[in-house]
Inverse folding.
């Protein structure tokens, strides 16, 4: 059943109504799966939303890693696409309503070792991409640059007025960091 359930749909409902107001009936209706089936599979609304958040994290990491491995793209474009997959693409859900910001604390209130490990994988892959294709001065600092870019993308997702501005600003930052 989880393959039939869309994490994006679930998180959009939470963003629109808020965690407390999103009922299992609302979530069942949005996904086209019965409320009882959701309870049978997940046991609770919290467990269902934990699954949705983990699914989103896993999918985002897979997209980011694919972007980093794209041999046809320049390094700045690969890093930009990876960071957009990791953070930027979720701006729409986070800003869908005043409740959208509730989704982030659900994922980050206590991210746990599993989430930190996922982000470490992304940072390591970014560092490897910088080592393989970055300018000489960036190669020696690849790990630090990758971590800084990841942190920058997360901060920019909260500061940029929209997704287009996020991408423009991040492209400028990635280009400037690698040019040093």
């Amino acid at each position: 059943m989880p393959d039939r359930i869309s994490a994006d749909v679930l998180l959009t409902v939470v963003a629109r109504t808020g965690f407390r107001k999103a009922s299992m009936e609302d979530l069942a209706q949005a996904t086209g799966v019965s409320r009882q089936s959701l309870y049978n599979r997940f046991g609770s609304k919290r467990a269902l939303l934990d699954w949705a958040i983990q699914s989103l994290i896993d999918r985002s990491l897979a997209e980011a890693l694919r972007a980093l491995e794209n041999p046809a793209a320049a390094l700045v474009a690969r890093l930009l696409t990876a960071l957009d997959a990791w953070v930027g693409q979720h701006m729409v859900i986070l800003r869908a309503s005043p409740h959208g910001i509730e989704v982030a604390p659900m994922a980050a209130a206590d991210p746990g070792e599993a989430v930190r490990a996922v982000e470490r994988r992304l940072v390591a892959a970014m560092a490897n991409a910088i080592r393989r294709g970055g300018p000489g001065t960036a190669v020696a600092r690849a790990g630090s640059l990758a971590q800084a870019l990841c942190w920058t993308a997360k901060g920019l997702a909260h500061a940029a007025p929209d997704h287009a501005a996020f991408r423009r600003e991040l492209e400028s930052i990635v280009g400037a960091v690698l040019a040093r």
